[in-house]
Amino acid sequence: MKEYILILPIIFIFHDMEEVVGFGYFFKKNPDLYDRFPRVMKAYRNFKTEGFVAAVYEEFIPFFGVSLLAYYFPNKVLISMWYGLFLALAGHFIIHIGQTIYLKKYIPSFITSLICLPVSVSILLRCTRVMDFDLVTILTIALSIILMMFNLKLAHKLAHFVNGRMHIEENVMR
């Protein structure tokens, strides 16, 4: 199982680079999404790549940190946290694939989601075969997924903060 642990942050970065490169252009070319999905798109108002990059970096920290800890200090809790993070990321891929199907148009994240989902499922299934799913493991996995959901909210707040700071600095420089 140890041979898979450091693949998690690599898959995360591979996927998120497609988002970083493509979302600015995507939002500019699809302004109708703000009217069609106001509640969802509220998180992406005043989108700037710099804010998004800050959010991606913030999200990367737990993926990288937990993976390193689980690799160098393997124990039930760290491995379970890692597994929960991997499950959360696989769920993220499924959401992006669903969004693309629903919108009937390419969303930056779709291609890497198609590539990364089967790889992630394969790794998760292989790890499932060797893990002991007792109460501690199940609770730790669930807690990791919940924490990543909260972390996503934090990442969005960070993106808005960075975008707001950039807006202030742009106005000062004029």
From TrEMBL:
<protein>
    <recommendedName>
        <fullName>HXXEE domain-containing protein</fullName>
    </recommendedName>
</protein>
<feature type="transmembrane region" description="Helical">
    <location>
        <begin position="6"/>
        <end position="27"/>
    </location>
</feature>
<keyword id="KW-0812">Transmembrane</keyword>
<feature type="transmembrane region" description="Helical">
    <location>
        <begin position="51"/>
        <end position="73"/>
    </location>
</feature>
<dbReference type="InterPro" id="IPR025671">
    <property type="entry name" value="HXXEE"/>
</dbReference>
<feature type="transmembrane region" description="Helical">
    <location>
        <begin position="79"/>
        <end position="95"/>
    </location>
</feature>
<keyword id="KW-1133">Transmembrane helix</keyword>
<keyword id="KW-0472">Membrane</keyword>
<feature type="transmembrane region" description="Helical">
    <location>
        <begin position="131"/>
        <end position="150"/>
    </location>
</feature>
<dbReference type="Pfam" id="PF13787">
    <property type="entry name" value="HXXEE"/>
</dbReference>
<feature type="transmembrane region" description="Helical">
    <location>
        <begin position="107"/>
        <end position="125"/>
    </location>
</feature>
